[in-house]
Design brief:
The structure is a homodimer.
Chain A lengths: L1 E5 L5 H12 L5 E5 L9 H6 L7 E4 L2 E4 L1 H11 L10 H16 L2 H6 L2 H5 L9 H18 L11 H14 L7 H11 L2 H7 L7
Helix pairs in contact in A: 1-3, 1-8, 1-10, 4-8, 7-8, 8-9
The complex binds calcium ion (4 copies).
One calcium ion (CA) binds next to loops of chain A.
C-alpha cells in the first residue's frame, strides 16, 4: 500500500491513517506532497484522489481519500487489531468524536495549528473564539474520558485524534487540566504515534 | 426515537438523518432547536449532545450527534434497507464523499447557503473561491456518477448529500451540466426527501 501525506508531516488526519496502518501491522510506503506548491492538483495525484486531498491511501487499483473513510476501510478489509471499537454504541461514539474534531473548533485549529505540535509553539494569545473552542474541547474530553486511560476501554484511533487536538494547547503551554495532560502524554508515547512524531521534517 | 434538528429545517446534515430514519421505516419525533437563540447551549440539550450540535438522535438512554455517526449507527443497529452500500470499497467511497462534503468546498457552502435550497435564491455572484469550489464539485460529481442514476448502483444516503450540494447551485440558477441537474431533480422527488423539503418553515 501507499499513503500520500503532506511533506511537513503536520496533517493530523494523515497522522491518524499513518498510525492506523502501523497499528494494523501493514507495510506501506509514504509519499509526500508539497501542498503549498500545488502537488495535490497535479494530474498524477488528482487521478488517484477525486478530492485532491491528503491523506490518500492506494491499495492496489483502489485509491481512497478522507481519513475517516480510510480508517473504516482498513477495519473492514484488513486483519489486525481494531482501529475503532466494535460494540455499536462505542463505535458510534468514536465516529462522533472523529466527525466533531474534523468539523468544529475551527478557531482553535486556526490559532493553534499543528505547527505548534510538530514544529514550535506560538506567542499569540487565544482570541475569545479560540478560548471558547478550547473550553468546549476540554469539557468534552473530560466528560468522554471520565478518568479512564482510553476513550473506549482499550486503545482506538480516536485516542490519537483527541491527543493531537489537546496537544495544540498543551505543547503550547496553554492551560489544560492535569488529567488531560497526562492522558495526552500517554498517548504520545505509543510507538505508532512516536513513529510519526519523530519523522524528519523540512524547515517551514 | 427523537431527532433534534434546526428550526428552519435548513441543516443538510439534519436532513440526511431525517431521510435515513424514514428510509429505514423507523418512527421518530422531531424536536426543533432555535440555534440563533442558543437553544443548543441550554443544559437540557447539552446533556444529550456532548458537542451541542444538530442533528442529535436520542434512542432510549443513548444519544448521539454528528450525522455520519448517526447514519452508521442506524445501519449497525436497525433493520430495513441499508443507508450506505455494504460492499467495502463502495462503502468506503460513500464515506469518502460524506466526509468530503462536510469538510471541503467551504466557499460554496458559505456563498450558496442552504437558504438558497429551502427558502429563496440569492442575487450575489460567486466569488473566485466560490466558483473554484463549484467547479471542483461538478468535476467530482460527474466522475463519481459516470452516467449512472445513483452513485452506487442503488440509492444510498450519499445521493441525498450530493443532491443537496448540487442544488445549492441548481436551485439558484447557477450553471450546472444537464446530467447533474437531472440527477439532482430525480433525488429530490424521492418521498423521504420530499417529506423534508415540504416541512413548514418559519420566516427567516
Ligand atoms: Ca513538489
Ligand atoms: Ca466515572
Ligand atoms: Ca427556542
Ligand atoms: Ca462510464
Amino acid at each position: 500500500m501507499k499513503l500520500y501525506v503532506d511533506r511537513e508531516y503536520a496533517s493530523p488526519w494523515a497522522m491518524a491513517v499513518f498510525v492506523g496502518l502501523r497499528e494494523k501491522g501493514l507495510g506501506f510506503d509514504v509519499e509526500v506532497l508539497d501542498l503549498a506548491a500545488g502537488d495535490q492538483r497535479q494530474a498524477g495525484f488528482a487521478r488517484q484522489s477525486l478530492t485532491q486531498r491528503v491523506p490518500t491511501l492506494v491499495d492496489g487499483d483502489f485509491s481512497l481519500s478522507e481519513s475517516t473513510a480510510i480508517l473504516e476501510y482498513l477495519d473492514d478489509t484488513q486483519a489486525g487489531p481494531d482501529l475503532l471499537p466494535r460494540e455499536p454504541r462505542q463505535r458510534a461514539r468514536a465516529r462522533q468524536l472523529q466527525a466533531w474534531l474534523r468539523s468544529d473548533l475551527g478557531a482553535l485549529r486556526a490559532e493553534r495549528s499543528t505547527e505548534v505540535v510538530f514544529y514550535r509553539p506560538t506567542d499569540k494569545p487565544l482570541t475569545a473564539a479560540g478560548q471558547a473552542a478550547a473550553s468546549k474541547l476540554i469539557a468534552a474530553a473530560t466528560q468522554l474520558l471520565d478518568g479512564r486511560d482510553y476513550l473506549f476501554g482499550t486503545w482506538s484511533v480516536a485516542d490519537v485524534d483527541l491527543a493531537v487536538m489537546l496537544n495544540r494547547l498543551i505543547l503550547n503551554g496553554d492551560p489544560v487540566p492535569d488529567a488531560l495532560k497526562q492522558y495526552a502524554a500517554r498517548q504520545w508515547q505509543r510507538p505508532s504515534v512516536q513513529a510519526w512524531v519523530q519523522l524528519e521534517r523540512p524547515p517551514l
